[in-house]
Write a structure and sequence with these properties.
It is built from 10 helices and 16 strands. By secondary structure, the protein is an alpha/beta fold. It folds into 2 domains: 74 residues, Sandwich (Immunoglobulin-like); 327 residues, Glycosidases (TIM Barrel, Alpha-Beta Barrel). An 8-stranded parallel barrel has the order 4-5-6-7-8-9-10-11, surrounded by 5 helices. Pfam families: Glyco_hydro_10.
Length: 430
């Protein structure tokens, strides 16, 4: 009896990476024609089309562009060219977009939400295969000023309605949300007069979290809802403990890491991973910023207090940013509890606090950090088009980081998902 050959193996370079090899998964794939007949001994090409792990960035510029189009305010040729260049750079590296749903700018006048611009921006990303997260449904900062004179019971009613409206209207397009942002500081926030802080003082932190999660869940039961904060102290840990003890279902923890005052370094990153990983919830690094210039003074408690007109990159800063990016992303990808890693701004153009925190200069020229991250995300951790041949039963074996892979044979393309499902997949390509 003649032994059957083993399926041809298609292996991603990431399998050999000691930092991320433990994330790799394998799946047997049978390639068939449209009638279900196995394609035996057929040459195929396999390539990765998306990571299962979300590599994200904000997509705020696309909202601005959509709003301008809807208002009939054309861009100049130079503005269009720059946007197209930045858009291409975005999709060449990222696959998960965070869009701004700050209530005060989303609905600057009561009853007039800017739904159309946000929907157009979300569709721009989804139509090109990206995933979208909304940020945030509840936050005390950038709250509408028209809320301030209203009585507290009316503010709470409107807040609940806002969460239900937007989580519901965008269901199927935006299915991941920062349900509530920066709750640790919310009841004691004194930088401005806002109605959301007044409500937080009355119902408490856990009550605010419950409000946000329950209203969003009711509007979109399929949504992934995050508790998100910049406070990496024990205060945030205690809040999480209290929310879980109160029976609030949290789908993932959002951890901000704006490093304007200095890079965390691997030691702090590992400490944060351990302290927040102990809850057994998926971790999303939601807001990463790394400087390519000087760091701001460490004595400032609020980053917003550092107001400068010009904050340039430096040769040393550009090199440091690239090194920091590689170390941080490698450390995060190595931890299986991390599901999404989001950088807070592709370009220096419009960067928060005028900081040189983008991966790309304001003119659209990539910094060394962009090239370094692309070498990891779309290089070292990515399966480029690879040739293989199916066995006598039309099978091949695929191993790599979880995600989507395309199988091409004779000009026809099929798709397979590699993840924790180890059942054999059938891919129809003809």
């Amino acid at each position: 009896m003649t032994a059957q050959p083993s399926p041809s193996a298609v292996v991603s370079p990431a399998v050999a990476d000691p930092h991320v090899g433990h994330r790799t998964r394998g799946r047997s794939v049978q390639v068939v024609d449209r009638d279900g007949n196995p394609l035996a001994g057929v040459a195929v090409t396999v390539e990765q089309t998306q990571h299962g792990l979300g590599f994200g960035c904000i997509g705020f510029d696309e909202v601005h562009r959509a709003a301008r189009r809807l208002a009939g305010q054309p861009f100049t040729a130079d503005e269009d060219a720059l946007h197209d260049r930045l858009d291409a750079l975005w999709f060449d590296l990222f696959d998960t977009a965070t869009l701004p749903f700050y209530w005060g700018t989303f609905e600057p006048r009561e009853g007039e939400p800017r739904t159309a611009a946000l929907r157009a921006a979300a569709e721009h990303f989804v139509d090109r295969g990206a995933r979208v997260k909304g940020h945030p449904l509840v936050w005390h900062t950038v709250a509408p000023q028209w809320l301030v004179p209203k009585p507290d019971d009316e503010v709470e009613r409107l807040l609940r309605a806002r969460v239900r409206r937007d989580a519901g209207e965008f269901a199927g397009l935006v299915d991941t949300w920062d349900a509530i942002n920066e709750v640790v500081i919310m009841p004691v926030f004194t930088k401005d007069d806002n109605a959301v802080t007044r409500i937080a003082k009355t119902v408490g932190r856990v009550g605010m979290v419950r409000l946000a999660f329950e209203e969003a869940r009711a509007a979109n039961p399929a949504a992934t809802l995050l508790l998100n904060d910049f406070d990496m102290s024990a205060d945030y840990e205690h809040l999480i403990e209290e929310c879980l003890a109160a029976g609030i279902r949290i789908d993932a923890l959002g951890l901000q890491s704006h490093m304007h005052q200095g890079t965390w370094g691997q030691e702090k990153t590992l400490d944060v991973l351990e302290r927040f990983g102990r809850f057994g919830l998926p971790l999303h690094f939601t807001e990463i910023t790394l400087m390519s210039g000087e760091h701001m003074p460490k004595h400032l408690d609020d980053l917003n207090d550092h107001q400068v007109e010009h904050w340039p990159s430096t040769p040393e800063g550009l090199e440091r940013q690239a090194q920091d990016a590689v170390e941080l992303y490698t450390t995060l990808v190595a931890d299986p509890r991390v599901q999404v890693i989001t950088y807070w701004g592709l370009s220096d153009h419009g960067m928060w606090l005028n900081a040189p925190g983008g991966l790309v200069h304001a003119d659209g020229t990539p910094k060394p950090s962009y090239d370094a991250l692309r070498g990891l995300i779309r290089g070292q951790w990515w399966l480029s088009p690879t040739a293989a041949t199916t066995d006598d039963e039309g099978r091949l074996r695929l191993s790599g980081l979880p995600g989507r892979y395309a199988v091409t044979a004779g000009g026809a393309v099929g798709e397979v998902v590699v993840g924790d499902d180890e059942d054999e997949a059938t891919v129809t390509v003809a």
